[in-house]
């Protein structure tokens, strides 16, 4: 996971993401020394807001059109900063010395390298019609999981499911409950057409 910053431009609502950003994990806005949550919308919903809403405030919503067009709403009025947590695009491995553990080649922890082998065996078995692996099906089930295996087993989860479970545990065994806003606090100030953003700004 990496962090990138994007400086917004006044009166500009669309931005082209850098090609190094493979997938957005999360983001937040820094404006006037405060941080604001930014919620993701479908492209159609964001465009509808642009067409039919008159909200003027630091941006609170975004959409990703295609693979690289970042759309924000409301349209920025100043050079605020968008902080983007993202999965970086890895470079193809071309040499026997290339290590997928490094950030350049994916930053995949050594304990998960077995998954790379399974994926390659799956695709190779399929490409070469390998009968011994049922044309790669054996490796595909090991990689993605076998829905016919007993529930709760690693065979059912496959490599991918087991890896995701292990990564969740790595972040802590318990996830905090949902934060409910107190009823006596306003999220929006009473001036029409002006939105102050998330109450969880710092």
Low-pLDDT stretches are 186-202
Oligomer: single chain
Mean pLDDT: 84
Largest beta sheet: strand ordering: 1-8-3-4
Q: What is the count of structural domains?
A: 2
Distance between the termini: 23 Å
Portion in helices: 10-25%
Q: Main sheet?
A: 4 strands, antiparallel
Morphology call: elongated
Helix tally? 4
Share in β-strands: 15-25%
Could you outline the blueprint of secondary structure elements for this entry?
Blueprint: E1 2-7, E2 14-16, E3 21-31, E4 34-37, E5 39-40, H1 43-52, E6 61-65, E7 69-73, E8 81-88, H2 113-127, H3 137-144, H4 154-170
Parallel strand pairs: 5-6
Antiparallel strand pairs: 1-8, 2-7, 3-4, 3-8, 6-7
Helix pairs in contact: 2-3, 3-4
Features of the shown structure:
about 200 residues, alpha+beta, 2 domains, four-stranded antiparallel sheet, four-stranded mixed sheet, 4 helices, about 25% helix, disordered C terminus
Structural commentary:
The chain is elongated. It is an alpha+beta fold and 202 residues long. The protein folds into two domains: 2-88, no CATH class; 103-170, no CATH class. It contains four helices and eight strands. It starts with a strand and ends in a 32-residue tail after the last helix. Mean pLDDT is 84; it is low at 186-202. The strands form two sheets. It has a four-stranded antiparallel beta sheet, with no helix packed on it. Strands 2-7-6-5 form a four-stranded mixed beta sheet, with helices on one face.
């Amino acid at each position: 996971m990496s962090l990138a910053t994007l400086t917004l431009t006044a009166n500009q609502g669309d931005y082209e993401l850098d090609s190094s950003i493979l997938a957005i994990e999360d983001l937040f806005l820094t404006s006037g020394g405060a941080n604001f949550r930014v919620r993701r919308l479908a492209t159609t919903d964001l465009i509808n807001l642009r067409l039919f809403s008159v909200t003027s405030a630091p941006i609170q919503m975004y959409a990703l059109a295609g693979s690289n067009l970042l759309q924000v709403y409301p349209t920025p009025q100043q050079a605020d900063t968008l902080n983007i947590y993202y999965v970086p695009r890895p470079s193809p491995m071309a040499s026997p010395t290339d290590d997928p553990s490094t950030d350049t080649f994916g930053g995949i922890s050594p304990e998960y390298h077995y998954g790379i082998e399974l994926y390659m065996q799956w695709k190779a078995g399929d490409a070469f019609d390998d009968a011994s692996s049922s044309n790669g099906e054996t490796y595909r089930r090991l990689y993605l999981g076998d829905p016919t295996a007993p529930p709760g087993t690693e065979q059912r989860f496959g490599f991918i499911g087991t890896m995701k479970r292990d990564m969740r545990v790595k972040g802590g065994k318990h996830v905090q409950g949902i934060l409910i806003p107190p009823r006596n606090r306003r999220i929006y100030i009473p001036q029409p057409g002006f939105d102050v953003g998330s109450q969880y700004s710092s």
